From TrEMBL:
UniProt keyword annotation of Ion transport present: no
Biological processes per GO annotation: innate immune response; zymogen activation
Residue ranges crossing the lipid bilayer per the database entry: 6-23
GO molecular function: serine-type endopeptidase activity
InterPro entries noted in UniProt: CUB_dom (IPR000859), Sperma_CUB_dom_sf (IPR035914)
Keyword Cytoplasm in record: no
Residues spanning the signal sequence: none
The name this protein goes by in its record: CUB domain-containing protein
Matches recorded under Pfam families: CUB
Gene Ontology cellular component annotations, sorted alphabetically: blood microparticle
Length: 134
């Protein structure tokens, strides 16, 4: 496993930059909690892009994902907003990967307090890896 790290003196913080990793919704594989806003900032070394692949996605379905959703952003630009549980749902990423334009991605998972189906949803699991820029 390749790990890069750097130190920013003004912030007194060490950042670890991984070549690959996993991201999961809180409590996964158990149902995710209500009233949640969680953010992940993924970063790989400069000169690489991030290839994000969902291995599982079960987020409460709603029109335009207005109830619960997972957004994938690059520099504040939304690359995708996802919900649903079947590959045929309009806002489900299916088996397609997302490739970032640069070396960062941000994931934002938002849930509301309602669950009209009274059915638990288990959230998401995704794998990411660094891909060299061509």
């Amino acid at each position: 496993e390749w790990i890069f790290f750097y130190f920013v003196p003004s912030l007194s913080t060490i950042y670890f930059v991984l070549m690959y990793g996993h991201v999961q919704s809180p409590l996964y594989p158990k149902p995710y909690p209500a009233d949640l806003q969680k953010q992940w900032n993924l970063e790989v070394p400069h000169g690489y892009r991030i290839n994000l692949t969902f291995t599982y996605l079960d987020i409460e379905h709603s029109a335009n994902c207005t109830s619960d959703s997972l957004m994938v952003l690059y520099d504040r630009k939304v690359l995708g907003k996802f919900c649903g549980q079947r590959l045929t749902d309009a806002h489900h990423p299916g088996l397609k990967s997302i490739l970032s334009p640069g070396n960062r991605l941000q994931l934002v998972f938002v849930t509301d307090s309602s669950n009209p189906d009274l059915q638990p949803h288990h959230g998401f699991s995704a794998f990411y890896q660094a891909i060299g820029m061509i």
